C-alpha cells in the first residue's frame, strides 16, 4: 500500500507549502522517462482521492469518474511543462478542481461562491444546537447538556469500521457543496489551507468559516451515531 | 483597592468573558492557530475550568483524525489498464 501523505492528527498549515518533494522529484524523472511503473504508482496513490474530491463537486458518480479520467489525461499532457513550483500533488489536484468546476458549470450544478451565506450553505448556522446551552442567567451560553466524552478508541472502533465508514461517508455527502469541498480537501485529503483557498478562490477567513461549519456538522453526526440516535445497520 | 482586588481584576480581564457557545464557534480558529495571544490565553483558561468544552475540543480532534483516515476506494483494474494504455500512447508521442 502506498502512503497518501496524510497529515498528523492536528490540523495545521502544511509545513511544505510549495515545491515538489524529493520523493516527487524522483517520480517526475521516472514519469518523464516513460516508466510505466511510476505512472501506475501515481495512479494508485491519487486515483481514489481524486474521485473523492470530484464527488465533492459533481454529485453524479459517472461524471466524477469522467472528470478524473480527464484529469489524468491533463496530467500526461502537462507533465513536460510542469515546473515543480507547486508540489506534484497540488498540481494534480489543481487540474482536477479546474475540470470539476467547468464540468459543474456546464451541468449548472456548480454553485458560485458568491452564494456563500445563502441559507443553502448554512453558513450562519451555529456549530452546536443552541438548546444545548443555558438560555439565561449567570451561566448563559454555558453548556446545559455538554457532550459526553467518547473513549480514546472510538475513532477506530466505531467510525473506521465498515458500517461507521459508510455512515461517515453519507454524513459528508449530505453537507452543502462548499462545506463538503473544503472538508474533503482539507481534512480527508490533507491538502493545505493556502492550496484549498486557491482551488476554491476564497479567502482564508472564508475557508475557516466553511471548514468550521463542516466539521461541526460531522462531529454532530458522529455524536448521534455514538449515542445510538441513528438506527445502526 | 487591595493588592488582592487588583490581582483579581487582572485575572478577570485576562480571562475575559469566554462562554462555551463562544468556544464552540471559535474552535477551528483555535485549532488552526488563527487567534490573538490574548484570545488563545482566554480559551486556555476556559478549557482548564470547563469539562464540556474540553470534551467538545477532543471530539473535534477525533472527528478530524477520523476524516483523515477514511479508506480510499481501490482503483478498478479496468480503469487502471485504460490509464496505463493512455500512458503508453503518451510515451510514444
Ligand atoms: Zn465551556
Could you explain the architecture of this structure?
- The complex is a heterodimer of chains A (233) and B (93).
- By secondary structure, chain A is an all-alpha fold.
- Chain A folds into two domains: 22-106, RNA polymerase sigma factor, region 2, helix turn helix motif (Rna Polymerase Sigma Factor, Chain: A), CATH 1.10.1740; 113-226, Orthogonal Bundle (Arc Repressor Mutant, subunit A).
- Chain A is 56% helix and 0% strand.
- Chain A contains nine helices and no strands.
- Chain A has helices at 22-32, 36-57, 61-78, 88-106, 154-159, 162-173, 177-188, 193-200, 204-226.
- Chain A starts with 21 loop residues before the first helix and ends in a 7-residue tail after the last helix.
- Residues 1-17 and 112-120 of chain A have low confidence and may be disordered.
- With 93 residues, chain B is an all-alpha fold.
- Chain B has helices at 3-15, 20-31, 37-49, 51-67, 77-91.
- Chains A and B meet through helix 2, helix 3, helix 5, helix 6 and helix 7 of A and helix 2, helix 4 and helix 5 of B.
- The structure holds zinc ion.
